[in-house]
Amino acid sequence: MRHGKKVNHLGRTDSHRKAMMSNMACSLILHKRITTTLAKAKALRTYVEPLITKSKNDTTHSRRTVFSYLKDKESVTILFREIAEKVATRPGGYTRILKLQNRLGDNAEMALIELVDYNATYSTEAPAVEKKSTRRRGGASKAKKSDAPVAAAPVAEEVQAEETAAPEVQEEVKPEAPSTNEENAEKGE
């Protein structure tokens, strides 16, 4: 009897389940979001969140412990460098599971599991929008004479930027070859 055993075996042997969870965790770390079945997403959440918590403490021991679960150097490096910095102040709940439509082939419940701090849609911080600088041509009736010098200033700055960005290349001037008698005759000389 399996009283009190909460692990979902997902219809796989222990070695197969561990390998699958390791591969899915590496994919989640590399791509920041993956699509899978709902049961696998819930199992992956319990697998990967302790690893992310472990990555907050960047020591050799924690790196080796995480590597024993992931078995991929690149994903361990990304986890400890990028992801650990983003989740440093978060006390837990590093992943989000969003339910999707059922799969067409077997009607399995599908879900999208993603790292919370990498989704711009749900983030509380508004992304910095740069002001678009466009030059517009105004008609003679709209423009005032006092606005004319102001409008010329950005153009002068752009010309200066282009000159500094692309240094001038001087072309060598080749002297012309002396003309022959036949060419002189054709020209009428």
From TrEMBL:
A single Gene Ontology biological process assigned to it is: translation
Protein keywords: Ribonucleoprotein, Ribosomal protein
Q: Where is the composition biased (Basic residues)?
A: 133-143
Q: Which Pfam families match?
A: Ribosomal_L17
Q: Which gene encodes it?
A: rplQ
- Give the species: Hufsiella arboris
Question: What is said about its interaction partners and assembly?
Answer: Part of the 50S ribosomal subunit. Contacts protein L32.
GO molecular function terms listed in the Swiss-Prot or TrEMBL record: structural constituent of ribosome
Q: Which GO terms describe its cellular component?
A: cytosolic large ribosomal subunit
Q: What's the protein here called?
A: Large ribosomal subunit protein bL17
UniProt lists the family membership as follows:
Belongs to the bacterial ribosomal protein bL17 family.
**Bias regions of kind Low complexity — which residues?**
148-168
> What are the start and end residues of every segment in region (Disordered)?
126-189
- Classification of source organism: Bacteria, Pseudomonadati, Bacteroidota, Sphingobacteriia, Sphingobacteriales
Ribosomal protein among the record's keywords?
yes
